[in-house]
Write a structure and sequence with these properties.
The protein is an alpha/beta fold. The protein has helices spanning about 35-45, 60, 65-70, 150-160, 175-185, 190-205, 215-220, 230-235, 240-255, and strands at about 5-10, 15-20, 25-30, 50-55, 75-80, 90-95, 100, 105-110, 120-125, 130, 135, 140, 165-170, 210. The structure holds zinc ion (ZN) and fe (iii) ion.
Length: about 260
Amino acid sequence: MPLEIVTIPCLKDNYAFLAHDRDTGQTAVIDVPEAAPIAAALAQRGWRLSHVLLTHHHPDHVQGLAELLADHPATVIGAAADAHRLPPLDVAVAEGDRIVIGRDEGQVIDVSGHTVGHIAFHFPASSVVFTADSLMAMGCGRLFEGTPAQMHASLAKLSALPGETLVCSGHEYTAANAKFALTIEPGNAALISRIEKIETARAQGRPTVPSLLSTERATNPFLRSDSPEIQANLGLSGADPIAVFTEIRRRKDSF
Ligand code: ZN
Ligand code: FE
């Protein structure tokens, strides 16, 4: 039985997620931007929190943890590489380590770039990956600590997962990301039709996260360094993919 996923809007534009296993009742939360909406989502469903998975150390992903744990004791899992700047961890993990939620088993993927030490959690049997500020809907996180080459390698790992994988990312930045994507790949029909769906969703107040990995591969410029149209628009036809990625990231930073 695949994990049941719940998207929880937090703060201004963050997302936390619940991953619930019906057979065992175990429930994980991925990132804790604030406690109240997560506690409410658990209470509404009668679920008991068992695990907390932290993606990276930024306050907007961990600052609600102490308050949540006060009423919802759970096993806290995060990157060993970042243990010195994360809240206290019960389990410190690294790339390739396994995480068990109920009867599903996830794998830790190092996705450094936004920060060095950022991890993602992939649950193959449930076709879901929690990416926070690495791969985002039509975007990727800003490079606060890592190099473009590091982020490019991280995104390549995520992009290689099965196309039906649900990408649970950390922020509602999709509309702004879409505007940028259109400036460098205006001839991409999949991008144009996705933008229409996003505008409708946002007008109705619906989240545009999570998204399917196959959709990201077709429309997310940060996964499309090999697009001839993007390369031509950047004046980088035939250039090295990392050079193209670096230029896309540079332009987005000042967009
Ligand atoms: Zn962040
Ligand atoms: Fe963030």
